[in-house]
């Protein structure tokens, strides 16, 4: 069951990137809701990784922690930066525009 946290984190990370891209491709009046959902998916994805790390600490799997923490930090950083950039681009694109 705990292994699903990594899959959930990956899926939510992809959702966090796809929603602003969809908002940019299709002009919609719900772009703000899509941005909020995107940022929420990013936050939940990062929470899943934090919770998985907590699980590894609880079971004292130090080898797994040492092997994966570098990749987790890089992936989390990339997820956060790209999500913020995509949502900032969406905000700039929709500032002052009206949906069809």
TrEMBL record:
Originating species: Sporosarcina koreensis
Protein name: Cytochrome c oxidase subunit 4
Membrane-spanning parts: 6-25, 32-52, 72-94
Keywords, alphabetical: Membrane, Transmembrane, Transmembrane helix
Domain of life: Bacteria
